[in-house]
Amino acid sequence: MSKAYDTGPAVTGPNVLSYHEFRTDEELENRQKAIRQRIRTAIDDGHEAQSKGEYGQLARIISAGLLPVLDIDRYSLRLYDERLHDSPYGWHMTALSRFFENQDRYLTPESVDGREWLSARSNRGETPEEHRQRILDGVFESLESAAIMEGYLPSRLEKQQPVYGFSMQLGERYVRPDSTAGGTLDIRDTDDELKTILCAGSKGSGKSTAVESMVLDSYANGHKIVDLVDFFKSENATYDLPQQEPTNADLIEAREAMDLGAGFEDWDERPNLEIMAPLSPGLEKMQVPYNEDSDEPVMRPFTIPASDLTFRQLVMLLHNTTPTQENHLRSAHQKLVNSGRDWTLKDVADTVRNKTGAGDSVCDRIETALETAQGKSFIRDKECEHQLDWSDIMQNEDVITSFTVHTIREPSDRLLVLSYLLDSVYDAREQLTRHNLTENFAPMTIVMREMHKVAPRSKSEQEAESTMEGYMIDTLSELFALARHANTEIIADTQEFKQQLSSEVSGLFDHIYCFQSHVPDVKNIFKTRLDDTDPAETIAQFEQPGKCALVNEDGYTMPIQFAPPPCHHLEAKEDGSGLGMRARVDETGEKLLPAPWNANVPARLKFDDTPDDPVAEFCEKFIDQTNDMNDYAVKEYITDTYNEWAKVQDKKIMSHDKIHRRVKNHFDLGDDTDAKPTVDGERKYAHRTLVLRGEDVPI
Ligand SMILES: Nc1ncnc2c1ncn2[C@@H]1O[C@H](COP(=O)(O)OP(=O)(O)OP(=O)(O)O)[C@@H](O)[C@H]1O
Ligand SMILES: [Mg+2]
Fold first, then answer.
1. I want to staple 545 with a disulfide (CB 3.0 to 4.6 A). Which of 25, 30, 206, 243 is the partner?
2. Looking at the predicted structure, is the pLDDT value of residue 4 above 50?
3. Cα of 269 to ligand 1 centre, how many Å?
4. What is the mean pLDDT of residues 634-662?
5. How far apart are CA 162 and CA 165, in angstroms?
6. 108: pLDDT confidence band, cut at 50, 70 and 90?
7. How far does the centroid of ligand 1 lie from the alpha carbon of residue 209, in Å?
8. How many CB atoms lie within 10 A of CB 217?
9. Is the CB of 209 under 6 A from ligand 1?
10. Does domain 223-303+377-594 have CATH number 2.60.40?
């Protein structure tokens, strides 16, 4: 006998199923599942038809979708009546009796006969149609109750169990009336280690409000809050503002429905908050919130010492470097790191030129790129007064520190700054653990919204960006490993868990709050933690934002309905930027004023010894910035005009590259303004949004 057919000795015993029994059970279970699904769909469709007033459709759902599956007819009705007439579920025996008296006429009243029949039955002064609708409503609700009683539908009658965080009520959990769950559900009072938490779900499912509620709970529990990620409009700059109408009207109502006060009325005082943004020409031109009492901005700029940059970050800063350039940069970076000095970007250029054997044209290009990078202002040295200082931030325990990179334009620069923030917060916590100082500081809560942008599953098509993303994923893995020992919790949110979030990162979270999402996405969350994926269908159908399941390796708890936070939840579409929002809220006593910081590069970091930049002077005099993407100034014309002007005015003649680097710097242009329009029948390189006032140039 071949091995494949050798089934071995027969296995028997009380706990063993034969294959036949196993298949029979499986078929039965599948059949039950299919029936349950059919009934749920019919009930949902019935509610929809009812809400649209489509009674023909409701009648069809009752006769074809519910009665045959539930096996209810005028004979079995009595049995149901015995079990349901005293129950808390809606049961309308009179309507049912009327209905079964002559089903066809309620279902299809279009015939003259049907209408007359109905007319004879209607009472209470109703029209025949009103009568028919009342009976169908009663029948539908009764069938729904029968389905609940048979266990096909979850009970609609639920009791609420308050859900608590460290000290705040964070929401409610709904449990069946017969459930033994009592008291409160404490979702964060776990063992002594802080957790890493992810809120995952579709757009608008209520992830960010849940994050905000948990963050304020951590703050109330004495944690130092650091919100690291904002790409857009300072959405994390409103933790200290009470909720504002009209955009938060629903959220205030949702809190009140749980008997929770809106705003900070139950708090001794509002939280404190500071906003950190990288110093840049863009920030210099902004209006920022100022506290009118202290006359201090609520925002602070920060800079990054060049000598803290990793080689990858340095390459990212320079955009579009070639492999040859990277080799020379790597060698220069290594030499500078070994020197232990507080080196600058200018030192990189000099080291490349003098110590790596690079040819002149490579050196020139690297220098040009480094000088452009220096002009962005946020990379400086350790002497800079704005240098990001984590020990200062960690000591300011009762201030929520929210970072934003929305003030810089280039996506790659934003990623670079974010990568630096991750590296540096890791180093700061790691130092504390290494020196056994963790106990001297408050526990830290690191918040990362839009995790799928920080650690995306499919990396960017731009090579430099995708390298940086890979690098950030590595840092995140280290940060998660460290968090457990460094008294640090991480709270993050992401849209599509499976499709968008890196699998290296998605596996790292201890707790996942799973909000409404596609079935495969929800299943994936369950699969990564548990064997059971049954609840996925139900979670995928959650309609109310804020409703979710808590999933971890020990099991799941659902449904939990989060309470919105007491703070204002920014609705970016209507509220605009978080900064402008602050100035509109009375309680803050803030107004928007021009930023007080200067983004000029200090002399010690300048590449060029000439203090005045002639290109800047030329730009001021002869180029208009219209900010209209339809306008453009041809680069070649600018170069020619500049050099002719420079000759007459006895200024420095410069190369085409150098001139345009400075023009871009001067007007803070990104790559999106680079264009190649057809001019006089020829394609020419140009800067959009600028106009050269050629005819006025006095040559
Ligand atoms: N707990 C809640 N109770 C009631 N309504 C809520 C709750 N949470 C959110 N909402 C409503 O849902 C909207 C979207 O919520 P939120 O911004 O938190 O969603 P999100 O999942 O973060 O979406 P996105 O992926 O677009 O960031 C809110 O503006 C609010 O109207
Ligand atoms: Mg959100």
1. 206
2. no
3. 26
4. 92
5. 10
6. confident
7. 6
8. 22
9. yes
10. no
Q: By C-alpha distance, which of 460, 495, 448 is closest to 230?
A: 448
Q: How far is the CA of 475 from the centre of ligand 1 (A)?
A: 29
Give the integer Cα–Cα distance in Å for 78 and 82.
6
How does pLDDT run across 387-425, given as a tens digit for each residue? 999 999 999 999 999 999 999 988 889 999 999 999 999
Give the count of beta carbons closer than 10 Å to the beta carbon of residue 675: 18
Sole residue written with tokens 């050196």: 363
Is the minimum distance from the CB of 545 to ligand 1 under 6 angstroms? Answer: yes
Assign domain 608-696 one CATH number from 1.20.120.80, 1.10.10.10, 3.40.30.10, 1.10.12.10.
Answer: 1.10.10.10
pLDDT in tens, 149-165: 888 887 655 667 899 99
pLDDT tier at 344 (50, 70, 90 boundaries)? very high
Cis-peptide, bond into residue 559, ω within 30° of zero:
yes
- Which pLDDT score is estimated for 158? 60
Q: How confident is the model at residue 40 (pLDDT cuts 50, 70, 90)?
A: confident
Decide: 171 in ligand 1 pocket, CB within 6 A: no
Beta pairing class for 555-562 and 547-552: antiparallel
Q: Is the CB of 233 under 6 A from ligand 1?
A: no
- β-strands 686-688, 632-634: how paired? antiparallel
Residues with CB under 5 A from ligand 2 (ion): 208
Nearest atom within ligand 1 for CA of residue 213: 1
Most ligand 1 atoms within 8 A of CB, residue of 199, 251, 512, 521 to mutate: 251
Cβ(568) – ligand 1 distance below 6 Å: no
| For residue 2, pLDDT beyond 50 | no
The dihedral built from the CA positions of residue 283, 289, 292 and 295, taken in this order, carries a sign that is: negative
Relative to beta strand 287-291, strand 590-594 is antiparallel
Place of tokens 């999402």: 517
Q: Do 184 and 162 form a contact (C-beta atoms < 8 A)?
A: yes
Q: What is the full DSSP assignment across 578-591?
A: HHHHHHH-GGGTEE
20-31 residue pLDDT tens? 766 677 777 788
The CA distance from 469 to 426, in Å, is 16
State whether the beta carbon of 564 lies less than 6 angstroms from ligand 1: yes
SS3 146: helix
Handedness of CA 383, 385, 387, 388 (dihedral sign): positive
Q: What is the pLDDT of residue 211?
A: 98
- Contact yes or no for 215/562 (Cβ under 8 A): no
Contacts with 497 (C-beta within 8 Å, 6 or more apart), sequence order: 198, 200, 506, 512, 517, 521, 524, 525
Measured from the Cβ of residue 116, the count of other Cβ atoms closer than 10 Å reads 13
Mean pLDDT of 430-447: 95
Cβ partners under 8 Å of residue 561, min gap 6: 171, 172, 173, 174, 544, 546, 547
Domain residue spans of the chain? 19-149, 223-303+377-594, 608-696
Percent of the chain with pLDDT over 70: 93
Mean local confidence (pLDDT), 584-602: 92
Q: What is the pLDDT of residues 220-259, one digit of tens each?
A: 999 999 999 999 899 999 999 999 999 999 999 999 999 9
Using left for φ > 0, alpha for ψ between -120 and 50, and beta otherwise, residue 445 falls in: beta
Q: Is 305 in the pocket of ligand 1 (CB under 6 A)?
A: no
Provide the 8-state DSSP code for 676.
Answer: -
* pLDDT score for 11: 46
Q: What is the mean pLDDT of residues 319-329?
A: 93
